[in-house]
Amino acid sequence: MTPSPLGRRQQGLLMTGGGALIISPDALLIKVIGLPDAEILVWRGLLTALGFIAIVVARHGRGALAAYRRCGWTGIGVALLFSLSTFGFVLGNQYTRGGNVLMILAGAPLIAALLSRCFLQERLPRRTWLAILACLVGIALIALDDAGVGSWQGNAFALLAATAMAANFTLCRTRQGVDMSPMLTLAGLIVAALAALHGLTGPGLTLPAGDTLGWLLLLCLGLLPLGFTLLQRGPLYLPAAEVGLLMLLEVVVGTLWVWWLLGERPTPAAFAGGALVLGSLLAKGLVDRRVERRQRALGAAQHEPC
């Protein structure tokens, strides 16, 4: 039985919002693990690839290979774009201030909206544009203390990450009904291979031990594969811009994780920014729900017998 449009939308919101919340401890756990960026890239790529494979096999069983084949060349493009966004994020943080990276990444929903408008002719309601602009302001407030003059290379890497993320979600919308999340396996392998190819790991890469290994496995073998699988399925149900918008939950909740467990207290401006992001998403969700209920009521009234 085909779910109703309202049911599909709710499913997309739960998937995307849930995925963003699952990966929200990413920044916290990277701090706790404490490995150099180069080693994190290799282990992140290899372990997430294993996690993605496990999820695909658990979901599809003997049909796992068919799930990969259905993605076709579009899936390869998705994998490449996901890899670019990973490299852009990691290298952006290496070459410029973290606040700059966050503010540039907050532009991903706007980039996705423009790409979808140009290539897919998708129109967004005014409330979505207002929510995007409000969230941009909110993320700017969160990142204000850590923003400043940074290298153009770092800012360019952050812009690459935001654009690749937006293009990834937009590309998924070109194959309606096809789940592209299995191709994140290839993305993980690309990240690990490129990191190793360029000598980022140096000689003698070894698997960490003790608590470091435990946190690494939790993050890269558990949280990231599950969270990104849900996020990558978001475009099956929602416009690319809305998927990018809900991803901003990761920034807000991730900031709270770091404050709660590491004692890095956000500034009053950061609190205000987080409240603005969450408030904008909540307000948009409530308005969307009211509009959808009204549309359902009108549809039911039109189909009532005279």
Automatic annotation (TrEMBL):
Matches recorded under InterPro entries: EamA_dom, EmrE-like
SUPFAM superfamilies in the record: Multidrug resistance efflux transporter EmrE
Domain of life: Bacteria
Cellular-component GO terms for this entry: membrane
Domain EamA: 18-143, 154-282
Residues spanning the membrane: 12-34, 40-59, 71-92, 98-116, 128-144, 150-171, 183-201, 213-231, 243-262, 268-287
Keywords: Membrane, Transmembrane, Transmembrane helix
Pfam family, one: EamA
PANTHER family membership: ACYL-MALONYL CONDENSING ENZYME-RELATED
Protein name, entry field: Permease of the drug/metabolite transporter (DMT) superfamily
Organism of derivation: Halomonas shengliensis
Lineage: Bacteria, Pseudomonadati, Pseudomonadota, Gammaproteobacteria, Oceanospirillales
